[in-house]
Amino acid sequence: MVFLAMTMGCAAGGLTVIQRSGGLVLPASYEDSIGETHVTVSMANGEELKGRLTWIPPGGGLSSTLITVNNVSGSATGMSSGNKGMYIGTLVGNRGTTMRVELLCNAFTGKCVGLGQSNTGEIFDIQR
User: Fold this and answer.
1) Can you tell me the distance from the alpha carbon of 68 to that of 45, in angstroms, rounded to the nearest whole number?
2) d(CA 127, CA 125)
3) d(C-alpha 15, C-alpha 13), whole Å
4) End-to-end Cα separation, the chain, in angstroms
5) Per-residue pLDDT tens digits for 74-116
6) b/e string for 50-82 if b means 16 or more Cβ within 10 A?
7) Are the C-beta atoms of residues 46 and 32 closer than 8 Å to each other?
8) pLDDT tens for each residue of 26-84
9) Angle in degrees, CA 40, 89, 97, rounded to 5
């Protein structure tokens, strides 16, 4: 398990972010660090969303994180079990858009699938 945590801490690459309403694939990337991943998504209108997703490890663990969006603080809590972990958090854009992201991940392969939802209600399918 320590090896897995160390290897997940070194990964970087592209994400597949698909706008559900039109099928547009948005340019996106991630870079892992210990216990979190930093994500950047370029929206169709040129806005860039960035943020940190917190890793909730497998094994029935309960994790919480504090998030701040537009100077408003809140918390996010999630629980995972088995070999499935989660990334949760919020991306914030440079033009006011926010996107709540939840990814369910296979802790052994590092592959993740999930959803993003913007503050306007738009849904995005996400694969890593």
Assistant:
1) 24
2) 7
3) 7
4) 20
5) 666 665 456 788 999 999 999 999 999 999 998 778 899 999 9
6) ebbbbbbbbeeeebebebeeeeeeeebebebee
7) no
8) 999 999 988 899 999 999 999 999 999 999 888 655 666 666 666 766 666 665 456 78
9) 60
Q: Indicate the pTM of the whole model.
A: 0.74
Q: How far apart are CA 8 and CA 128, in angstroms?
A: 13
Q: Which two tokens stand for residue 124?
A: 């995005």
Q: Which residue has the tokens 């940190």?
A: 52
Contact criterion met (CB below 8 Å) for 49 and 40 = yes
Q: What are φ and ψ of residue 3, in 5° steps?
A: -60, -45
- E strand intervals along 4-61: 12-14, 16-19, 25-26, 28-33, 36-42, 48-56
